[in-house]
Each structure stands twice: as C-alpha cells, then as structure tokens.
C-alpha cells in the first residue's frame, strides 16, 4: 500500500490484525449458522403437513436465495415428500408423474449435503448425477446453475459428443458432475488421477431407464468404482422395486416415495389422452391430415427409430405442410441436437419429429400435442412420452395411432397402469391421402427413396424384435401396403438373424444365405427369418421405370433390398454392353500355338530379375518395390562446375593428408569463401542500385501520366499546348515565374482572351467608374512577382507555384 504525500504513516501490523479478526468473526458466524441448520434438520419431521413452501424447509442461505431468484416458491407433491427425507440423509426411491418437479427434489438435497460437509475444490468429487440422455443431462445442469448460483461449488457437464481430452483436464476439479452413464464410465476407466473415493451422494434420474438392459453393464461397472458409504437417490416417473436393482446400487433401507400411487392415474389429470385405430398403411396419411389441421400448435411426434424420423422429416419438409418442422434423433451430432432443442423450446409453433431420446424428463415449454405414430414398446414408455405436455399444471393433449392388431393388447396395458384413454375416430373430411405425393418424391429424389427403404427396414425389424408378442403381431401387418404408402414401388426384402448365428452366417457365401422360398417366414438356414415381399405376377410399366430411375450409387442398394431378380432376357441385354478385358500381343502369342512364352530376364544394377508372371511385370512398375534389387543409392548431385557426384561421398584419410596441412586448408577455405562473399556483396549492391533507378523511373512515369490526364479537356481530347513536342508540364511552365516572364521556352506572353460581348450596354457613370477600378486592380495584380529558389522542374514545384498564385 502506498501512502499519499503529507499523510501520516500507517502501521503495517494494524490492517493485518483487523483482517484476521474479521475472518475469524466470519468463520464463527458460519459455524453458528451451520450448527443451527444441523439442529433444525435433526428436529425436522418429514411428514409434517405444514411444509408447503421452500421457506418451511431448513435450507442454507445460499440455496434459499438461489431458489428465490429462480422463482421457485411452492413445493410440489414429490418435493414436499422427498426433500425432507433426503436432507436427513436417507436413501430415496421415488416415483412421480412427469412434470411434477423431480429435478428440484434431488438437486436441493445435493447442494445441502455438500454445504453441510463444508465441501471445497480440494475435496474432489462430492456429488454425481446420472441421466440416461444428453438432453436431460443438459437440462439438469441448467437448473443446477440457476439454483446454485450463490454456492461456491464447481459443477461440470460430462456427456458424449464433446472432446474427451478437454473434459479430462477439468473433471478432476469438479465438485458436482452431471453425466450420462457411458461417458462417465469412460472417464473412470481412462482419465488418470480422477478420484471418486470421497463421493457423498449419487443421483440417478430416470432410474428405471438407466437400470434396464440398455445401460445395465455400464451402470454395474460404474457402481464398482464408487464408494459403498454414500447416499443414493433414485427418481423416475415409473419406479422399480426389485430387490436385485436395489442390491446392485447398494441402497440401505431406502424410503419409497410414490406420489401417484394414491391417485387414480399415473399421468397428470390435466392431460387429455385419446387414441385412434389407423391401419399401418394409413398412418402417414393420418399424420399429414393432423398437421394440416393444427398449424397453430406446438407438437412432438414420436417415432420408433431415427431412420423413420429422417424419412418423414425430409419428405414432409418437401411437401410443406405449413408449420415449421424439426427433427431430433440419437445419430445427430451433439451441436445439432443442442441447437434443435433450443430452437424448439423458443418456437411458438413447431412440429418436432423425434425418437425416445427426448421421451424422458426433457422440459419443452408450452407443448400442445404429443403424437405417437408408432406404438410404444410398453406402457412406461407411453407415460414418459405423453409427459412432454401438461407439465406444471398446464393443460395438454396426447394422441396415439394404433394398428388394428395392436389395439386390444396395448389398451389393456394402459388400463393396468391406470391410464385414462378413450378412442376417437378421424373425420372423413380430414382424411387426405399423400401416397401419390410420396411416390412422386421417391421417383424424383433418390435420397428420399433411400430414406424410405431404410425406414421400412428399421420399422419392420423393430416390430419383429418386440418382446410383447400379444401387442405386436408381426404376421398380421400388411407390409406391401405399408411400402406403397411410403412411395416405394415394392416392399424391400429383410433378413433377420438370431444373435448366435450372426457371425457364422456373416462368413457364409451369399448363395448359401439367400432363400429360395417365396413365402414369408421360410428360410434355408436354421435361425434365419427371411421376410420377403409378395411379388405380383405382372409388373407395371411404372414399376420398371422406378427401378431404372436410380442409376447411381443407390441402384445396387435398392436391388438388394427389393430382392426382385431381373428377367433372364434383361440380364442378357445388359451383358452385351459390359466391357471385356482387351487381350494384348503377349496373350495372343501365348494362346496361339499353345507353346508357353519364354520368361524375360531384366538386368537391374548388378542383379538380374526373371519376369515369368504377370505379378513380376507389375513389380517392375513399382519404384518402391524395386529398391531392394538396387545395388545402392544412385542419386547424383552436381557441383557449381557441373560435375556429377554421388549423393554421399566420404574422403579417405590418406587423400585428405595428401592435400596439405589442415590449417592451410582451413585458411584457403576461409579465403575462398570470403571472396565469394565479396562478389555476392558487389552483386547485391548493383541489384539495389538498379532497383532504386527503376523506382525513380516509375515515379517519373506516374508524374507524366498525371500531367497528361490534367491536360485533357472535358471531351477527352488532348490540348495542343506545344505543337512541336508534347510536354505534360507545358501548361504549368506557361505560368509566370520570377522576372515577370512566362514559363514557355519562347518567352512570349499569350494574348489576353477577349471579353465576351454583352447583349446590353451600361451607360451609367457608376458602372463606368467600377469598370475602371477593376482594370486598375488587374494591372497591379499582373505586375506581382513571385520569387522562387530554382527553376520549376517537377510536378511538386509547379503545384507550389500554382498554390501561391491562387493565394493572391
């Protein structure tokens, strides 16, 4: 600290003492607040009916202020039940409706747990929050940033699609991590120095999805890295109570929090749920008519696979229904997924085609409709999908498209889960067939046709692999009509193999894998299910045109999918156009008399190479392979005199001594090099002198060009200043200089220009007096002399002279 002049000196010890005292007092207050908080938590009754707001809970000041700033005041049912139990240190197994506020139910206990433990950045990872999808993890992280804005904890988001190296550099300094299972397991296995031994609390959002078969191995491996002594919170819209799941996660006497079990339905009461029976071949028509009837709505359309999402998005985008379209699936880049999510959240009206990647937990504001074109795999998935609307006491509507074969079985599943749903019929005037438009798109755009084929295969496989055979009856689906509704001229052929036979069949010849049967479900190999479209006896003209349309990279793919063998006549016609190998002279000689040609012998360096096959002939064309037959390096370098030398030359010791003493050789070398340097110096000076001369010439040339431009009249014709010789400076030389003469070479003054005649005469005395005064002033001005140091030569001299004349 620097004191001002005249100020009294300040003792150095006094500020330090006051700072220490203030720190001590601050720590003492924090300890008192912490002890009061722990005492309030110990006296808290989790089942107290008076708890209705966040202010009724024993929370630290940082968490309370963050909730207040984020406008969270009233507790929801799941929050009122779960938060008191969680802050008392109990393990939680919670189930609540979608949109009921489960995120705050575990984020508030996480912040309170680390605050009471006085967690710092030096203590490492204290809380781990696992989410099944990237979108849900990003949403949790944003809520954590809002309510934890006043805490000093460091938090990070660890999901796929970003740089693993950048995450590894920062992950060791994080106190709270929000992650997906696969990415977190990757860091636990590969990131050196990443320590999770001090973990205090583990949170699994959408726990039923995380613990199912898709994430089972990853979760089991991840839990192995975590300490056993920790608090665990599990939340989902549909919860599992299986003892095996609880044992895997090391839950100790968990508290079951199930809000909707006491109510009549597992879905919100403000959600209007309907379904309509639509044959598979008419689902796209029904979807198109629905979009055209709800152009002012915001909706999410769920499909069973990403390939279907891409096909419907691309085809509908070209047909322009009149509403903004977006699509989201798991195969997109993370940047694109984030941008699409942001755009859909901010859009007032839009339609988002999506897979189940956004079916769980993602909060899309103000969604009016949830449309499920494809039947979900189970009732739990249905509950999560419809949870994207009717969130936080807002009304919403959901519609489900069911094939006649799916209606009976799936409606029973929903009734068992206490989901109120009623059947409706589509109005006849709202139905609109788009099969012709889709067929036209596939005919004109090979990329749309390719997407349609992939979507057909993807949907068919998903139905065949469903476990609930009572709902998904594969044999009752009309696949030919479904392919025609997508604009395809024929149903692609699909081969499905069981898991154990995949590797064996992969290595088999193609002829052994193909089925010769024309009927569905038959095949040559055991464990192979061949689904082959029924072929009509007559192929129309337009079907043949569609097959010949894609003569590009997609044509072979389409022929494999359709599986229709071309007629023998067409194969013969194509064969005569195929290019055969042209026989050279050697082939003709070898085949002429039946005698075998003698092998050639090629001499390469000191070795000889016998050319007795086509392989050896190709060898001669490869420089890299011919190096091993060479005797050594054959590359030459040329000195200044033009003499050739080998690339590497070593002088013998005797030759070196014969040239003389080393000191004299060094002096000779230095003298030679010094002479070369002097010669190069002279050349450089001459080159510099030449460059300066060229620069002056260019400057003079520019001056001449500028003067030539000045001497042109308005019409562009050059003024005749000097008849004998064109001089760009002649105009300025004609100006008067010192001595009263002009700058011309002949020294004669130009005659004054005649005054223009007037069309009238002034006879007044005042006018005549004014005219005499003007003539007098002109005569005085004409006699003025401007002195200069030297004769004007350059453009700058004449500009200075002209400026002096104008100034007067």
UniProtKB/TrEMBL annotation:
Record field: catalytic activity: ATP + H2O = ADP + phosphate + H(+)
GO annotation terms (biological process): rRNA processing
Transmembrane segments: none
One Pfam family in the UniProt entry: Helicase_C
Residue ranges of every copy of the Helicase ATP-binding domain listed in the record: 83-257
UniProt KW Transcription keyword: no
GO molecular function, one term: RNA helicase activity
Cellular location(s): Nucleus, Nucleolus
Gene Ontology, cellular component aspect: nucleolus
Keyword ATP-binding belongs to the record: yes
Keywords: ATP-binding, Helicase, Hydrolase, Nucleotide-binding, Nucleus, Ribosome biogenesis, RNA-binding, rRNA processing
Xref: Gene3D superfamilies: P-loop containing nucleotide triphosphate hydrolases
Record domain Helicase C-terminal: where: 283-442
InterPro entries, per database record: DEAD/DEAH_box_helicase_dom, Helicase_ATP-bd, Helicase_C-like, P-loop_NTPase, RNA-helicase_DEAD-box_CS, SPB4-like_CTE
Biased composition (Basic and acidic residues): 675-689, 696-711, 783-793
Compositionally biased intervals (Acidic residues): 517-526
Enzyme Commission designation: 3.6.4.13
Family annotation (SMART domains): DEXDc (SM00487), DUF4217 (SM01178), HELICc (SM00490)
The organism's place on the tree of life at top rank: Eukaryota
Stretch list, region Disordered: 1-33, 506-526, 675-796
The protein's role, per its UniProt record: RNA helicase.
Family: Belongs to the DEAD box helicase family.
Domain notes: The Q motif is unique to and characteristic of the DEAD box family of RNA helicases and controls ATP binding and hydrolysis.
Protein name: ATP-dependent RNA helicase
């Amino acid at each position: 600290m620097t004191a001002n002049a005249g100020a009294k000196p300040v003792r150095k010890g006094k500020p330090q003492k006051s700072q220490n005292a203030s720190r001590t007092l601050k720590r003492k207050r924090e300890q008192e607040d912490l002890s009061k908080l722990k005492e309030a938590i110990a006296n808290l009754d989790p089942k107290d009916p008076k708890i209705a707001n966040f202010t009724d809970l024993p929370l630290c000041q940082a968490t309370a202020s963050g909730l207040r700033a984020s406008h969270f005041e009233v507790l929801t049912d799941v929050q009122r039940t779960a938060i008191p139990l969680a802050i008392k240190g109990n393990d939680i197994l919670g189930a609540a409706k979608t949109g009921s506020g489960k995120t705050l139910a575990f984020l508030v206990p996480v912040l309170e747990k680390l605050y009471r433990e006085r967690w710092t950045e030096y203590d490492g990872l204290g809380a781990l929050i696992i989410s099944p999808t990237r979108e849900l993890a990003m949403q949790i992280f944003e809520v954590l940033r809002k309510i934890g804005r006043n805490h000093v904890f460091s938090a990070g988001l660890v999901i796929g699609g970003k740089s693993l190296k950048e995450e590894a550099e920062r992950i060791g300094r994080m106190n709270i991590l929000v992650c997906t299972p696969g990415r977190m397991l990757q860091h636990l296995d590969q990131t050196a120095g990443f320590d999770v031994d001090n973990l205090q609390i583990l949170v699994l959002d959408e726990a039923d999805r995380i613990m199912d078969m898709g994430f089972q191995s990853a979760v089991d491996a991840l839990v192995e890295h975590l300490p056993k002594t920790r608090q665990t919170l599990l939340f989902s819209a549909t919860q599992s109570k299986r003892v095996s799941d609880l044992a895997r996660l090391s839950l100790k006497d968990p508290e079951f929090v199930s809000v909707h079990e006491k109510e009549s339905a597992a879905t919100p009461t403000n959600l209007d749920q309907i379904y309509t029976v639509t044959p598979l071949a008419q689902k796209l028509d029904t979807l198109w008519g629905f979009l055209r009837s709800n152009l002012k709505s915001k909706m999410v359309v769920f499909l069973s696979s990403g390939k279907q999402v891409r096909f419907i998005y691309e085809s509908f985008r070209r047909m322009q229904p009149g509403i903004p379209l977006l699509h989201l699936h798991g195969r997109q880049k993370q940047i694109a997924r984030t941008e699409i999510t942001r755009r859909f959240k901010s859009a007032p009206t839009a339609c988002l085609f999506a897979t189940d990647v956004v079916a769980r937990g993602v909060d899309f504001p103000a969604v009016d409709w949830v449309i499920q074109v494809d039947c979900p795999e189970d009732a739990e998935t249905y509950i999560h999908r419809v949870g994207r609307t009717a969130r936080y006491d807002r009304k919403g509507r959901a519609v489900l498209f069911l094939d006649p074969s799916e209606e009976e079985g799936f409606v029973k599943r929903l009734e068992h889960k206490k989901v109120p749903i009623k059947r409706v019929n589509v109005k006849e005037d709202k139905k609109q067939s788009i099969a012709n438009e889709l067929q036209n798109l596939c005919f004109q755009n090979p990329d749309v046709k390719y997407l349609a084929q992939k979507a057909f295969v993807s949907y068919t496989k998903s139905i065949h692999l469903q476990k609930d055979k009572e709902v998904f009856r594969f044999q009752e689906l009309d696949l030919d009509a479904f392919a025609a509704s997508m604009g395809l001229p024929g149903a692609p052929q699909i081969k499905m193999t069981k898991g154990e036979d995949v590797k064996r069949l992969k290595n088999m010849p193609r002829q052994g894998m193909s089925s010769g049967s024309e009927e569905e479900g038959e095949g040559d190999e055991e464990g192979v299910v061949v689904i082959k479209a029924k072929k009509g006896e007559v192929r129309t003209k337009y079907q043949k045109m569609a097959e010949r349309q894609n003569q590009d990279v997609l044509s072979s793919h389409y022929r494999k999918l359709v599986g229709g063998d071309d007629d023998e006549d067409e194969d013969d016609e194509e064969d005569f156009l195929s290019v055969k190998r042209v026989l050279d002279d050697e082939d003709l000689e070898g085949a002429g008399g039946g005698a075998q040609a003698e092998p050639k012998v090629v001499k390469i360096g000191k070795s000889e190479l016998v050319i007795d096959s086509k392989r050896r002939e190709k060898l001669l064309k490869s420089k890299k392979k011919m190096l091993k037959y060479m005797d050594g390096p054959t590359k030459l370098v040329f000195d200044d005199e033009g003499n050739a030398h080998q690339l590497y030359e070593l002088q013998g010791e005797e030759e070196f001594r014969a040239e003389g003493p080393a000191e004299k050789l060094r002096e000779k070398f230095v003298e030679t090099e010094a002479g070369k340097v002097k010669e190069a110096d002279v050349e450089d000076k001459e080159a510099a002198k030449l460059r300066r001369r060229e620069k002056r010439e260019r400057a003079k040339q520019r001056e001449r060009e500028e003067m030539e431009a000045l001497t042109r009249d308005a019409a562009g014709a050059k003024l005749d200043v000097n008849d004998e010789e064109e001089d760009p400076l002649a105009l300025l030389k004609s100006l008067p200089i010192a001595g009263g003469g002009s700058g011309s070479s002949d020294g004669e003054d130009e005659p004054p220009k005649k005054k223009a005649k007037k069309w009238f005469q002034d006879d007044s005395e005042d006018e005549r007096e004014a005219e005499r005064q003007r003539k007098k002033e002109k005569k005085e001005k004409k006699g003025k002399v401007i002195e200069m140091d030297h004769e004007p030569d350059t453009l700058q001299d004449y500009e200075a002279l002209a400026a002096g004349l104008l100034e007067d």
